[in-house]
């Protein structure tokens, strides 16, 4: 009996040790992917080797999707669910309306010469951005920073509040590549909003809609210049 108890205790200890190592490696992986890669890209761009950001984003997203599809623990229904399009969509739209009013007033006050400049001066380019930005930028970012991030690192982090904060910081950090403090601040706040929506609904479509609303609005109101290649 004592031998059996010792064997079980030893087996449990090995499992706990293996789980601890797994969490450690996941945390290291998180740091390398979400902070290491943007840092390398930033250093390359500052050194004169400019990796195009959108193609790089699409390549990374393709790799992320491949890993998700091959992961037996990933619930693929996340990619199709329309949960949250009721009460949560009303919350998203209400908060967006308030935020948009504040950002519009701020832009008109601080940068009056830039206010609504893209639709006024280059309407065709503005229309292209409204169509292509959600597909080529928003959806890949949401697959990486919400779907993959929350699936992959929930076990390593544990507390969903910490996971939400980490995802927002990572989302804000990658926007250092645009070379403007306002893009980092806005995306840090946006990361919290989008992460909260995803945690509450597990719907990539609702969180992508939310992200697209804010992004398209920023390009419309005159803040889009902080969100295209600068560094």
From TrEMBL:
Q: Where is the CAAX prenyl protease 2/Lysostaphin resistance protein A-like domain?
A: 124-214
Any single biological process term in GO: proteolysis
The protein's name is CAAX amino terminal protease self-immunity
Top-level division of the source organism's lineage: Bacteria
Q: Does the keyword Isomerase apply?
A: no
Under the GO molecular function aspect, what terms does this record hold? Answer: endopeptidase activity
Q: Which Pfam families match?
A: Rce1-like
Q: Which organism is it from?
A: Engelhardtia mirabilis
Membrane-spanning residues where? Answer: 24-43, 49-69, 92-112, 124-144, 156-174, 211-228
| Keyword line | Hydrolase, Membrane, Protease, Transmembrane, Transmembrane helix
């Amino acid at each position: 009996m004592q031998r059996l108890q010792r064997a079980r205790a030893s087996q449990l200890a090995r499992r706990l040790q293996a789980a601890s190592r797994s969490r450690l490696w996941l945390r290291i992986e998180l740091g390398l992917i979400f902070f290491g890669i943007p840092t390398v890209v930033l250093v390359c761009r500052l050194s004169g080797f400019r990796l195009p950001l959108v193609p790089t984003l699409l390549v990374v997203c393709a790799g992320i999707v491949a890993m998700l599809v091959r992961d037996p623990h990933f619930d693929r229904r996340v990619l199709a669910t329309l949960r949250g399009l009721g009460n949560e969509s009303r919350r998203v739209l209400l908060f967006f309306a308030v935020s948009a009013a504040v950002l519009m007033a701020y832009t008109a006050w601080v940068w009056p010469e830039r206010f609504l400049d893209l639709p006024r001066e280059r309407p065709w380019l503005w229309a292209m951005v409204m169509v292509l930005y959600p597909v080529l930028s928003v959806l890949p970012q949401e697959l990486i920073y919400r779907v993959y991030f929350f699936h992959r690192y929930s076990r390593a982090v544990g507390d969903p509040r910490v996971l939400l904060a980490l995802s927002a910081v990572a989302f804000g950090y990658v926007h250092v590549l645009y070379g403007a403090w306002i893009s980092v601040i806005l995306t840090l706040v946006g990361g919290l909003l989008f992460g909260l929506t995803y945690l509450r609904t597990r719907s990539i479509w609702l969180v992508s809609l939310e992200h697209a609303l804010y992004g398209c609005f920023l390009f419309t109101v005159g803040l889009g210049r902080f969100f295209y290649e600068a560094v």
